[in-house]
Amino acid sequence: MDILKELQEAVIAGHAEASSPYPPRMKGKPGVKELVQLALDSKIEISKILRESLIPGMEIVGNKFSAGECFVPEMLLSAQAMKQGLKIIEPLLTAKDAKKMGTVILGTVQGDMHDIGKNLVGMMLDGAGFQVIDVGINTPPEKFVEMARAHPEAVVGMSALLTTTMEKMRETIGLLRKNNLTNKVIIGGAAVSQRFADEIKADAFSRDAALAVPLVKKMLGLINTN
């Protein structure tokens, strides 16, 4: 049995643990929780579990989502299944292993109470090895500024589902720059577009959660921008 392959397949299927009813064909079979523990018991390195199973599994799900081959509910189930594995792994990481790739401040803008998209992006970033500081929903510009000042190296991520709240993104970027904060900004959500991102001088726009991870990596210089 190839534990890592089986683990990756469990992530893709969104099968969190043996007792999970989803997907029906896998009920009773080991899920992400059990397979991660089995991998650890088999002395497989934590970094290998992350690099060869959990993260690639979510990348496959993200690509399928972008291609229209799966939808938000399936993607959320996969992300939640992966989180079951991360809960087991994180306490075992050494300080060196636990070093994050970067930090992202994530929030839904003021006046907007929607959080599904934000939470999905947060799960994807967390699974890719980023520290995610979730400031929640209905977040005023001043809160983004406060957190950006505390984390000057962080990327600021803003979400808006409503056209009536998207202008808060412009206001927030303006306030960040007024306070001489140079944090890079990525925006997303149903209300916004690349054109709007260019207009308000955001550094990047992500049309879906799957694209957010590579965009943030590019913004932080972690992958080739070509």
How would you concisely characterize the structure shown here?
The chain is an alpha/beta fold and 226 residues long.
Cα Rg: 18 Å
Mean pLDDT: 90
- Gross CATH architecture of the largest domain: 3-Layer(aba) Sandwich
Main structural class: alpha/beta
The fourth-level CATH homologous superfamily of the largest domain is: Cobalamin-binding domain
CATH topology of the largest domain: Rossmann fold
How far apart, in Å, are the first and last alpha carbons?
A: 39 Å
The share of residues in helices is 40-55%
The general outline is elongated
Strand order of the largest sheet: 2-1-3-4-5
The number of distinct structural domains comes to 2
Structure annotation, total helices: 9
SSE series: HHHHEHEHEHEHEH
Largest sheet: 5 strands, parallel
- What low-confidence regions span 5 or more consecutive residues with pLDDT below 50? none
CATH class of the largest domain: Alpha Beta
Q: Which range does the strand content fall in?
A: 5-15%
Number of strands: 5
Structural write-up:
The radius of gyration is 18 Å and the shape is elongated. The protein contains nine helices and five strands; from the N terminus they run ααααβαβαβαβαβα. β4 (185-188), α8 (194-199) and β5 form a beta-alpha-beta unit. The protein has two domains: 3-92, Methionine synthase domain (Methyltransferase, Methionine Synthase (B12-binding Domains), Chain A, domain 1); 103-219, Cobalamin-binding domain (Rossmann fold). It has helices spanning 3-13, 32-41, 46-66, 72-89, 116-127, 141-150, 167-178, 194-199, 209-219; strands at 103-109, 131-139, 155-159, 185-188, 204-206. 49% of the residues lie in helices and 12% in strands. The chain has a five-stranded parallel sheet, sandwiched between helices. With 226 residues, the chain is an alpha/beta fold. α1 (3-13) crosses α4 (72-89), α3 runs antiparallel to α4 (72-89) and α5 (116-127) crosses α9.
